[in-house]
Every structure is written in C-alpha cells, then in structure tokens.
Amino acid sequence: MIRVTRSIPADRLKLLVFDLDGTLVDSELDLAHAVNATLRHYGRPELPVEVVASYIGDGAPMLMRRSLGDPQDEDYLQEALRFFMTYYREHKLENTYYYPGVLDVLARIHAAANGRLQMAVLSNKPVGPSRGICEGLGLAPFFVQIYGGNSFDTKKPDPLGAVTLLKETGTRPDEAIMIGDSHNDVLTARNSGMWSLGVTYGFSPETLKAHPPDVLVDTVEEWAEALGFPAPRRESTQVPSREGFTD
Q1: N or C: lower Cβ tally within 10 Å for the chain?
Q2: Cα–Cα distance between 153 and 166 in angstroms, integer?
Q3: Nearest to 230 by CA among 246, 217, 241, 239
Q4: Peptide bond between residue 141 and the one before it cis (omega within 30 degrees of 0)
Q5: What is Dmax (Cα atoms) for the chain?
Q6: Which of 19, 21, 26, 30 is an active site residue?
Q7: Quick check: is 19 catalytic?
Q8: Which domains does the chain show, CATH number per domain?
C-alpha cells in the first residue's frame, strides 16, 4: 500500500538518492556472518541474525560497537572493526541479493526517464563494500555516484553526503528525493531539503513510525509507482467464445 503524507511532485524530480542495505539489497545474512565471525575470533558468544539486523544502519563502527556490547576499550573496538571489515570484504556477496524487482525497476526508470533523471546511492556502509556490492549485483551502471559511510566526515542523517550529491548533479533540493528504510534516510532528506520515500520491507521499518517519510510503501513496485514509473500494463488475453463453432 502507498501511504502519502505529503505529495511528491514526481514529474519535477531530477535526482533519486537510494539507501543501499534494506532498500536496494538484502545484506542481512552476510553482515550477521561477518559480525559472528568477529565475535568467535574474540571468544565471544554469537548473536542471532535478527539481533545483528537491528544494529544495522549507522555504519560499520556502530554495528561493531553494538555487537560487542559498547566496549570502553577503543583499541579493542578498532581491532575488532578491522577484523570485521577484512572478513566482510571477502564474504560480502555470498548471501547478499537485490530485492525482487529492483533491477527491473531501475532499468525501467533509466529507460523511461530518457536522461531526465539521475540516480545515486548514499549508504552508511563503507564505500568500498557499497561499490563492490553494486558492481557485483549489476546495479552500478544505473548510478552516477555511489557514496558510503566513510566518503565524508559525517554519516546520515547529517546532510553532507546528500548536499554533495545535489551540488555534483546540479540539482535543487526540491528536485531530489531520498529513498530508504530507516529514520536516517528520512532525516537526511529533511536536513538537506529533499523529499523522502520510506520502504517497510527493509531492516528498520519501526523507525519510520517516529519519523514518517513523505511517502511510505511496502514493495519495490510501489516505490516505482510513487515515483511515476508504474509497471507496464499487460495486454489482457481474451479467450474467444465458441459460440457459432461446431466440433
């Protein structure tokens, strides 16, 4: 279902900025495996996948801090983070996939927009894995830029990344939209003056209740429709009547 709090002027949009994890791709299992490999390495008990998933969204350093129980020893935390990143870089595409419909919808938007729209990724995941995942899953060609959590001095919801994309693409804030699964994406949009679209199928739909986006959707096809790119209508197949025919 598409729920509208504030109508988006889809025909005026020139830039679509996507979150990555929980919006375009489901990376939950690979992230959980990397976290648990790190915990095993340091002799700590593993965490359920759903618990790790609840820690995703604020970047790798915060993911590891939460997974380790907020340790006070910063050297230990940084060492664990390095182990996590080394493991994750090697295993980031073992169980990660784009959500059903994502590739088709991006291709549809790219073709239908006819140069009118540009698309980009702004993630809190480190930029190396972000680009590696987009390249490995065939998503990278659709984006003019892919930025990660270490591309700038600050992460979402700070607007620096979004504002940088606006400047690089020559787009006004009211001509751009941030699409994501968490409050970080909604707040990034608000902080930069962009529109916001939230998806409920990702990792942090509960955070969208406290910070509702302009439009909220449940599926990939619904965000395509909300952005003005609905699925092509299929021709109905009519079975001719047998009236007047004899065997």
Answers
A1: C
A2: 17
A3: 217
A4: no
A5: 87
A6: 19
A7: yes
A8: 3-26+97-226 (3.40.50.1000), 28-91 (1.10.150.240)
Note every long-range contact of 160-169, with CB atoms under 8 Å and residues 24 or more positions apart, other chains counting: 161/122, 161/188, 162/17, 162/122, 162/188, 162/189, 162/191, 162/192, 162/194, 163/192, 165/15, 165/17, 165/120, 165/122, 166/15, 166/192, 166/194, 168/144, 169/14, 169/15, 169/118, 169/120, 169/144
Q: What is the pTM (predicted TM-score) of this model?
A: 0.91
What is the full per-residue pLDDT of the chain (247 aa) written as tens digits?
999 999 999 999 999 999 999 999 999 999 999 999 999 999 999 999 999 999 998 999 999 999 999 999 999 999 999 999 999 999 999 999 999 999 999 999 999 887 789 999 999 999 999 999 999 999 999 999 999 999 999 999 999 999 999 999 999 999 999 999 999 999 999 999 999 999 999 998 999 999 999 999 999 999 999 999 988 776 555 555 444 444 4
Identity of the amino acid at 205: P
